[in-house]
């Protein structure tokens, strides 16, 4: 019988009631004003006249006119590089203690993004709110006194030039309050192990000593960990060792393509709750069970702007075209794709984070991630977002009763004509030709632009089946294994050749 669980659940319910935001537009106005007030005396704030912006009758419009867009390279080269040499008050007051090393899918070199004390506080607050929102779900009291297993990056952080450097999940885990230590697994000792395989082995060995009620991590790596625990402990399902496991907070990539393979590891219902934690901050989290959309954290130290994600406004390299319209939360429309722009308490300003989103419920500020600005497959006008691709892959799984956990695709020239060449991680017996035809038809039915492209410049679709493990092998080959690493869903021809050469070897 749960004794502590009801008390914890009641406390979380009270916290949820007192921290819930109802007027998201007003919350965003307050966040922007706070950001400008805090940073007005920094080098960035003085250069772009934050004082004058604050005196405007329309601060949001004045801010948009005063400050240009910044991608990582512009922000880093013009501003953050000064901060990284030890100069304070560049884009945010003082100096940050941490730099988050981005392990994303774009770029050949890792990016390092400032993480201020204010951002760490914002991430902690967002995490607490996410846990509080679990009181909206149909969960027994036992879950609220069980332990949480968060599978992120190593908490053994690097020290360089006066900064502590690591991936954001590792930084967050290293800053968990002491009173939560008794609930947090795998604990600081195992979390600090740098080698991914060694860390997972230790988790498998210790699993029998834990009472895990909640899991957190990127689906591809968490699934490998769960399989290792099951194999090492000779189990039928993960619930044989963790009977109270009822919640999985997913993040980093869409969960739906992994659902069928995950369900094979469970013998009980597990609620999947989506989150949106990036190196730049905690942006959104699912707040209610009626939807799998996530609510933007509109009062969490991040100000959001939105550019309609259309060929006229967003360039092929992901940059924003001159003259593109920029919308606030008050102006967006539901079910339209937008490139996301953020300004944060870590000193990122009008920053192109590289993700595209759509609103499913504007009043609640609920969104879904639809893809990446650079991973938008539009070489021949097909206008395919990652979300559309993932939806088609899910339909493929249902049609052929199979599992496709990973995929990548490229618009590749073959004999002078463009073809979409897909690699699917699956062990299905369905032929590659059948898969290609079904995938092609699904995308035609769902996307008018794709259908037009297929009648003109996009001459064909090819599908290659490969062992799902080849995707994690590729990440290992790229020196990107575990934690926050995500597979590239769309590759350009140069990277795709490297991928195909790797498979051939």
UniProtKB/TrEMBL annotation:
Residue stretches making up the GH3 C-terminal domain: 390-494
GO CC list: cytoplasm
Record Gene3D superfamilies: N-terminal domain of ligase-like
InterPro entries on file: ANL_N_sf, GH3, GH3_C, GH3_M
GO molecular function, one term: acid-amino acid ligase activity
Segments forming domain GH3 middle: 297-362
PANTHER family assigned to the protein according to its UniProt record, in alphabetical order: GH3 DOMAIN-CONTAINING PROTEIN
The protein's name: GH3 auxin-responsive promoter
């Amino acid at each position: 019988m749960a004794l502590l669980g009801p008390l914890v659940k009641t406390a979380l319910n009270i916290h949820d009631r007192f921290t819930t935001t109802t007027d998201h537009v007003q919350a965003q106005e307050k966040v922007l004003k706070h950001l400008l007030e805090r940073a007005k005396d920094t080098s960035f704030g003085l250069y772009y006249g934050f004082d004058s912006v604050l005196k405007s009758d329309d601060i949001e419009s004045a801010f948009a006119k005063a400050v240009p867009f910044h991608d990582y390279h512009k922000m880093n080269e013009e501003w953050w590089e000064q901060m990284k040499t030890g100069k304070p008050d560049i884009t945010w007051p003082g100096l940050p203690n941490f730099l988050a090393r981005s392990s994303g899918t774009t770029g050949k070199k890792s990016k390092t993004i400032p993480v201020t004390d204010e951002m760490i506080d914002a991430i902690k607050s967002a995490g607490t709110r996410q846990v509080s929102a679990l009181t909206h779900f149909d969960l027994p009291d036992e879950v609220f006194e069980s332990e949480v297993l968060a599978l992120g990056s190593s908490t053994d952080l690097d020290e360089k030039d006066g900064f502590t450097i690591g991936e954001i999940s590792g930084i967050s885990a290293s800053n968990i309050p002491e009173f939560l230590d008794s609930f947090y697994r795998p604990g600081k000792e195992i979390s600090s192990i740098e080698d991914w395989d060694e860390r997972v082995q230790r988790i498998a060995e210790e699993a029998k000593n834990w009472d895990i009620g909640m899991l957190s991590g990127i689906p591809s790596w968490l699934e490998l960990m769960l399989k290792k625990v099951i194999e090492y402990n000779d189990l039928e399902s993960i619930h044989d060792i963790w009977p109270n496991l009822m919640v999985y907070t997913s993040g980093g990539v869409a969960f739906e393509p992994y659902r069928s393979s995950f369900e094979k590891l469970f013998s009980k219902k597990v609620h999947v709750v989506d989150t949106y934690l990036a190196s730049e901050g905690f942006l959104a989290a699912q707040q209610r069970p009626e939807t799998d959309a996530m609510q933007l954290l509109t009062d969490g130290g991040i100000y959001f702007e939105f550019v309609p994600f259309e060929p006229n406004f967003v360039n092929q390299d992901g940059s924003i075209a001159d003259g593109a319209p920029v919308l606030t939360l008050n102006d967006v429309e539901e079910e339209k794709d937008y490139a996301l722009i953020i300004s944060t308490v870590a000193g990122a300003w009008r920053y192109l984070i590289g993700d595209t989103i759509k609103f499913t419920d504007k009043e609640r500020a609920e969104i879904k991630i639809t893809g990446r600005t650079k991973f938008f497959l539009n070489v021949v006008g097909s206008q395919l977002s990652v979300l559309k691709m993932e939806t088609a892959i899910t339909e493929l799984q249902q049609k052929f009763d199979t599992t496709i956990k990973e995929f990548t695709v490229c618009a590749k020239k073959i004999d002078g004509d463009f073809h979409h060449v897909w690699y699917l991680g699956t062990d299905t017996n369905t032929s590659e030709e059948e898969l290609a035809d079904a995938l092609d038809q699904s995308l035609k039915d769902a996307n008018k632009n794709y259908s037009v492209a297929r009648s003109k410049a996009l001459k064909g679709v090819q599908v290659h089946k490969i062992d799902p493990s080849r995707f994690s092998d590729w990440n290992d080959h790229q020196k990107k294994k575990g934690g926050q690493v995500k597979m590239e869903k769309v590759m350009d021809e140069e990277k795709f050749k490297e991928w195909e050469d790797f498979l051939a070897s």
